[in-house]
Write a structure and sequence with these properties.
461 residues; mainly beta; 26 strands
Length: 461
């Protein structure tokens, strides 16, 4: 299967492979897209230095072209089915580690040959299962209008052509997918997520990615609009004798703007008036690439959180904030507790276009958290849901809220107060076990800034 079983003792830098999304389409029964134009392995904005990389003794490599030609199916439970004549799989055994461009790194649980197929049951693997020694790193200058075809092809597959009348993404060949996924065209998700009717739109441009979000239910409507700029993502990983020894990752040059608007009112339903809801949007922009021999994905996603306290009778809340930022952030670790690194160059938060008013017969509040961009570093390529293993994320979180406190109206010693605030923070998260390091999983607050607007007032009639 392509390069086949890794050499047992050769110490040499591993070449960067060409990026293809073939398995995304092939798994659905269609033909894979052709390689991008230009030199083999060339990905705009990406450089991948490696040093002294030695793969594990039981590693078996497969290139995307060979896999696309011989892979019959990929199941979410981790089972891969290949043609019986696939080169390099003849002596595959439990405990081997498959490194398959277009899918990821998987540990073999069993391999069986039946008729014209080889069925390989797999489980999750770590990067250290595949890399014994050496240094792997990358610098990726992400320009939204110059990403690999696989980015927008996969994003559009997640959106679901089926809803537009196509039975399967597999009905589209690579050229057709490229025509649908022209950079600059708006990607649009519409659906119901955790009780909210959601519409999320992304429009790639040369210098930024514009976004629009609308999420509504019976008593709440949340909207957000703005952009994130181009940015640089840099990562270095070092391995010694099959163990992760060092990891460093950061995002620099990230600028953005978001105006978040909300309107909410009480409906005397505790599940709607007071329960905190986290809405994970099932749509993102997955950016696949090869880090030396290892398939990686930088996935750009968004989440929202609704935090109501509409429990005081005839309560309501509405308002908006506009936030702009310019920041660098990241963290590093040698296997212990990660050390955060961050620089907030500029932040401005001001009341938005809509008046911010929260009112009720008692203390009333409403908050909205909008997490975008959430940049997840993941092991593997997004061919099949569940095959991506997230080991680190960096995110910007904008939390805006309105609060009404009635004061002590009888004695007038504490006046009524109307307050609204915006809290903007950068957060790093990690799961070091995926790197082959000690089992540590946590979130780190990198920086946080709060802007508050308040006034003595009376409740709305």
């Amino acid at each position: 299967m392509g390069p086949g079983r890794a050499a047992r003792s050769t110490r040499a830098s591993t070449p960067t492979f060409v990026i293809l999304a073939a398995l995304l389409v092939t798994a659905c029964g269609g033909a894979g897209p052709r390689p991008p134009d230009g030199a083999p392995g060339a990905v705009a904005g990406l450089t991948v230095p490696t040093e002294g990389v030695v793969l594990a003794d039981d590693a078996v490599q497969g290139d995307a072209t060979t896999a696309a030609a011989h892979l019959q199916g990929v199941d979410p439970d981790g089972t891969l089915t290949f043609d019986a004549d696939t080169a390099g799989l003849g002596d595959l055994a439990a405990g081997d580690v498959l490194i398959i461009e277009g899918i990821g790194v998987r540990k073999v649980a069993s391999a069986d040959r039946t008729g014209d197929a080889i069925t390989v049951a797999t489980t999750e693997a770590t990067i250290a299962d595949a890399v014994k020694d050496g240094k792997i790193g990358w610098t990726y200058d992400v320009a939204w209008d110059n990403l690999p075809d696989a980015t927008y092809e996969t994003a559009m597959a997640e959106l679901g052509f089926r809803r537009d009348g196509l039975a399967s993404v597999g009905q589209l060949d690579g050229d057709m997918l490229r025509q649908f996924a022209v950079p600059g065209e708006t990607l649009r998700f519409v659906g119901k997520v955790q009780g909210f009717e959601v519409e999320f739109k992304l429009t790639p441009k040369s210098d930024k990615l514009d976004f629009e979000l609308s999420a509504s239910r019976t008593n709440v409507k949340v909207q957000a609009a703005g952009f994130v700029s181009t940015f640089r993502q840099e990562t270095v990983m070092e391995f010694e004798d099959g163990v992760g020894a060092f990891f460093d990752t950061k995002v620099s040059g990230l600028k953005g703007e978001a105006e978040v608007t909300w309107n909410a009112f009480q409906v005397n339903d505790p599940s709607l008036d007071s329960d905190i809801v986290a809405v994970v949007l099932p749509f993102g922009v997955p950016i696949p690439f090869m880090a030396g021999p290892i398939p990686m994905t930088l996935n750009v996603k968004a989440n929202i959180r609704v935090v109501p306290e509409l429990t005081s009778g005839n309560a309501s809340s509405g308002g908006s904030w506009k936030v702009t930022y310019d920041s660098d952030q990241g963290f590093s670790t040698n296997g212990g507790d990660p050390s955060p690194v961050s620089t907030l160059k500029n932040l401005a938060a001001n009341l938005g276009k809509e008046p911010t008013v929260t009112a009720g017969l008692g203390v009333t509040g409403f908050g909205v958290g909008f997490e975008f961009p959430r940049m997840e570093l993941q092991l593997g390529h997004p061919a099949v849901e569940g095959f991506l293993n997230t080991y680190a994320f960096l995110t910007l979180n904008t939390y805006v809220n309105g609060l009404w406190t009635p004061g002590t109206t009888l004695t007038a010693d504490i006046p009524p107060c109307q307050r609204s605030s915006a809290v903007v923070s950068a957060i790093a998260g990690y799961k070091l076990a995926v790197l082959g390091m000690v089992e540590l999983s946590d979130n780190k607050l990198l920086w946080q800034k709060t802007t508050t607007s308040s006034r003595t007032t009376s409740p709305a009639p």
